[in-house]
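agent: user wants the structure for 4-carboxymuconolactone decarboxylase from Deinococcus soli. delegating to structure tool.
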Amino acid sequence: MSDDPTPRARAVIFGSQQDRIEQRLDELDPDLGGYIRDFAYDTVYERPGLDLKTKELIACALLVSLGSPPELRTHLRGALNAGATEAELRGALMMCVPYLGFPRTVAAFEVLRQHLGTQRPAPTREAGPDGADG
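agent: tool returned. relaying tokens verbatim.
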């Protein structure tokens, strides 16, 4: 057991949902739950080189590519828990458009909208040089 008071990555990512998420995984299959905890979170996520916020932004983009809304919701929340701003999440999701296309990206923005509990439109682009949009 480490004396390091820094929370493990999965504790930050899962936040207040940690018990529920781990119980769900264990109910699917205890071995699967263990592999996800031990390998994905306690090994891969704990590697040095990238901060947790960056890892979570990458995870969000990868989950958009896979079309995995429940897991995306977990990692959108995890990115926020790790210090990402809404603008950074929107930026990471927007990077999916040229590589994954509009349908998956639109679906990801819907997951983000639901998570944030907002009905407000996304920020608009800045006005062009003549003062008109776009």
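agent: one observation worth passing along. The chain has two domains: 7-47, 52-117.
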